[in-house]
């Protein structure tokens, strides 16, 4: 077991994500979670795509490694440019893996070891969005609000369509192959980063995460989820931001 840990610790990991000023509410918690990692062979890089420089300066003042891109009007363009910087930094810096870890997700100290232990090119932890739905009682007609968990995981169904998974299908189910994942907390190998670019298709609804999964599957890579690694997610809706 000690030999396995030593081998995993030899892997060099770049952690990072695009950031935006509206994430001020969670950045301190994000940084604190990363500081508590018991995996030491990593670097952190954030890429700020806010319109103003204020958030970038705040991150620099926190002694965070951060770069900044020229502002783009549409969020998808900003995200793609930011992720491409991260991908290229991972390659130029001779990292073995890139851990795409969004700023509103807070990993546990052993998350990197658990993901590396699977020895997969693409493996995600489980996380979900919380949504409030209004449910109607069929018998009484009474309306009641309910808080539900919506996993950022998609399964390949029998009709060959990729559809959103239910929590009970993936949570605490261990390592499973999935149809698609979000890029919130996913470990991606250097081999994959060398062959793909982050992108999206204009005038379509999906963000870059869905196109990423489609592209890697065309290269015959499998996408995995470890449903036993449950990551806290403080999702915040981007009200008023052009997509």
Question: Can you tell me about this structure?
Answer:
- This protein has one domain (2-125, 151-230): Spore Coat Polysaccharide Biosynthesis Protein SpsA, Chain A.
- The strands form four sheets. It has an eight-stranded mixed sheet, with helices on both faces. A three-stranded antiparallel sheet has the order 10-9-12. A two-stranded antiparallel ribbon has the order 5-15.
- With 243 residues, the chain is α/β, with parallel strands linked by helices.
- The chain has helices at 2-9, 27-35, 54-61, 75-92, 111-116, 167-170, 190-193, 208-218, and strands spanning 13-19, 42-48, 66-68, 97-101, 105-106, 122-126, 128-136, 143-151, 153-156, 162-164, 175-177, 180-181, 185-189, 224-230, 232-233.
């Amino acid at each position: 077991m000690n030999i396995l840990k030593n081998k995993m610790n030899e892997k060099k990991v770049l952690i990072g994500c695009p950031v935006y000023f509206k994430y001020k509410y969670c950045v301190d918690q994000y940084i604190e979670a990363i500081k508590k990692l018991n995996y030491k062979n990593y670097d952190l890089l954030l890429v700020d795509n806010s319109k103003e420089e204020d958030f970038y300066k705040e991150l620099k003042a926190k002694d965070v490694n951060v770069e900044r891109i020229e502002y783009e009007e549409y969020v998808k363009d900003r995200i793609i440019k930011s992720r491409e910087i991260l991908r290229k930094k991972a390659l130029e810096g001779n990292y073995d893996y890139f851990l795409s870890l969004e700023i509103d997700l807070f990993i546990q100290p052993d998350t990197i070891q658990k993901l590396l232990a699977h020895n997969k090119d693409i493996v995600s932890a489980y996380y979900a969005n919380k949504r409030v739905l209004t449910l109607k009682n069929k018998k009484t007609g009474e309306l009641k609000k309910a808080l539900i968990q919506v996993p950022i995981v998609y399964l390949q169904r029998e009709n060959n369509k990729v559809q959103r998974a239910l929590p009970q299908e993936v949570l605490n189910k261990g390592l499973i192959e999935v149809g698609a994942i979000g890029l919130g907390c996913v470990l991606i190998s250097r081999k994959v980063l060398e062959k793909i670019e982050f992108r999206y298709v204009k005038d379509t609804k999906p963000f870059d995460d869905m196109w990423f999964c489609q592209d890697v599957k065309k290269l015959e890579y499998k996408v995995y989820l470890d449903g036993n690694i449950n990551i806290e997610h403080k999702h915040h809706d981007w009200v008023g931001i052009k997509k």
